[in-house]
Amino acid sequence: MVSLPGIRDDLIHVLERLHVPEVLKTLGRMDRRLAAVARNTNTLPSIESHLATVDESTATLPDVLGEMHRMSAAVEEMRDATVTIAELVPVLVELQATLVDLPEILSALQTEMGSLQTTVVELTAVVEPMGRVVARLPRRRRGPGVPVDDATG
Questions:
Q1: Same structural domain, 44 and 75
Q2: Between 20-41 and 4-18, two packed helices, what is the crossing angle to 10 degrees?
Q3: Are 18 and 55 found together in one domain?
Q4: Do 24 and 55 sit in the same domain of this protein?
Q5: How many domains, in total, are found in the chain?
Q6: Same domain, 87 and 116
Q7: Residue 30 belongs to some domain of the structure
Q8: Residue-wise pLDDT tens digits, 23-45
Q9: Who's near 140: CB < 8 A, 6+ residues apart?
């Protein structure tokens, strides 16, 4: 038969080998940590609903990205056009300097055209009667072997 004090000593010896006091302390710490984990996991449904809202809110981002690419291409075209315009500025300045005198030149040209028209009208008035007189004159031969041109006489 086994004596009670012997079992007690054996039990104490086994418990000491199992480090029961440390295990009990560790279990207490684990219990507190599990309670904290349980509190934190209680927020998961709220986080999940917020993630659904984030998903809905960010659904348009691919379209926004596409628009940004199109805008970037348009800005690049505008930049190229601006460079082209900048390159043309010296030519335009030179052209502008040349065109400053154009109204005066056109006015003088208009005056000269009017004067030329008056002169042509006066000459026509003088030449037409002469033409009629010349048309009545007999044709002369220019010499042997030279054909007579009917248009010039």
A1: no
A2: 50
A3: yes
A4: yes
A5: 3
A6: no
A7: yes
A8: 778 878 888 888 888 888 888 88
A9: 153
pLDDT in tens, 69-115: 999 999 999 999 999 999 999 999 988 888 888 899 999 999 999 99
pTM (two decimals)? 0.36
139: left (phi over 0), alpha (psi -120 to 50) or beta: beta
Q: How far apart are CA 119 and CA 125, in angstroms?
A: 10
**pLDDT for the residue numbered 115:** 95
Q: Do the Cβ atoms of 139 and 148 come closer than 8 Å?
A: yes
Q: Do 75 and 116 belong to one domain?
A: no
Residue 71 lies in a domain: yes
Nearest 5°: the CA angle 94, 91, 81 is 145
Q: Give percent above pLDDT 70 in the chain.
A: 88
Q: What is the rounded CA–CA span in Å between residue 5 and residue 12?
A: 10
Range of 109's domain? Answer: 101-135
Kindly report the backbone phi and psi dihedral angles of residue 66, in degrees, each rounded to the nearest multiple of 5, phi listed first: -60, -45
Per-residue b or e along 20-30, where b marks 16 or more CB atoms closer than 10 Å to that residue's CB: eeeeeeeeeee
